[in-house]
Amino acid sequence: MSPPRRSYRWWLFLFLLLAAVGTAAILARSNGALKVSTVRLRTGPVEELISATSAGTVEADRTAVVAAEISGRIRSIHIRQGPAKAHTAIFELDDTDLRTERRLTEVGIETSKLRREQARLQREKLEADLARWRGTDTPLERLEQLDKEIAIARKDEEIADARLRELDASLALVDLRLGKTRVTAPADGTVARLHAEEGEFVTTGRALFTFISGDIFLRAPIDEVDMGRLPDKAEARVHFDAYPNRSFEADVVEVMPVASADEKNNRTVDVKVRVRRLPPNVLPGMSARVEIVAGRVAQSRYLPTNVIHDNHDNGTRYVYLVEGEFARRRQIKTGRWNWDVTEVLDGLAEGDEIIETGKLSRDVALADGMKVVR
């Protein structure tokens, strides 16, 4: 059974379309000459940049997980999330049992004071009796008995004093534990996350909340091969996703002392970057792109980086120029560079027209001596 006539029309349309595309490509070469666009040397500042191998992470200078120091039931949570001043109460544990224990201890202290006073009065009475009876005809046995009773009264005073000191220490301990029922912010900062809820019974060491404080910075990985280009005091530029059309000046404040390896065994070194003027609504956990300024030339000649090619055989670099009707390969010497522009130190004159090879079709292989037209 023969195919429908509609299929033949489809194949005919596709053939004509491909023929039109091929004809346009041939005509674009203007009788065998490749049509190209060109750029010339420009003058201005050039920065050499080191880009992080992946997005950096916004972090706080200090992150603390604050835990309960005593056991108890959570009575209230004052700040669930957000900023908090130092010593502001975040959690409060039920202190009913401790308050009762404190009252009992206070009663014990009062009782011990009374017993001490009773022992003192007894001692003083016995000492007075002994002083009055000495030199009289009181039997020696009675005087010796008074001496013993005085010694017992003194011992009772000492026991009462010791018990009083013990109860004072117990009271201080109860007060210390009472203070720990009020769990506060360790510094000026932000409550980032809760780990417990009202009504829960928590034991000593149970995490209550995560608290962040100090400066906000970014941690980003750079390739180990770029470590040799990293200055001692490096500036950086940060791009937050929340502010897509802006960049923020920053400084590299720390370089980690060890390298890390990823799943592909690539080695990177983490750097800490602090933004000079941090914009609002940038929070720990967010991502950002980091570029480190490895060097800067205030005024230099430069070209777009994508028009410069590398000769991997001898390590040189070159461009293609338009000379008359032909493309000519020219070796050049370059300096500082980034993904956008590259400093040209030697090999080109001001009026040279360099072919924008990045705008050529991928199936076009530009070569030295090829005929071109602008």
How would you describe the overall organization of this protein?
The structure is a single chain. This protein is an alpha+beta fold and 374 residues long. Helix content is 27%, strand content 39%. The protein is built from three helices and 22 strands. Strand 19 (326-337) and strand 20 (341-346) form a beta hairpin. Helix 2 (96-133) runs antiparallel to helix 3 (140-179). The longest helix is centred in the middle third of the chain and has 40 residues, at 140-179. The radius of gyration is 43 Å and the shape is rod-shaped.
Brief descriptors of the model:
about 375 residues, alpha+beta, Elongation Factor Tu (Ef-tu), domain 3, 4 domains, 3 helices, about 25% helix
Topology:
Elements: H1 5-28, E1 34-35, E2 38-39, E3 42-51, E4 56-67, E5 72-77, E6 82-84, E7 89-93, H2 96-133, H3 140-179, E8 182-184, E9 189-194, E10 201-202, E11 207-223, E12 235-240, E13 248-255, E14 260-261, E15 267-275, E16 287-304, E17 309-311, E18 316-323, E19 326-337, E20 341-346, E21 354-355, E22 372-373
Parallel strand pairs: 1-22
Antiparallel strand pairs: 2-21, 3-16, 4-11, 4-16, 5-7, 5-10, 6-9, 7-8, 9-11, 11-15, 12-13, 12-16, 13-15, 14-15, 16-20, 17-18, 18-19, 19-20
Helix pairs in contact: 2-3
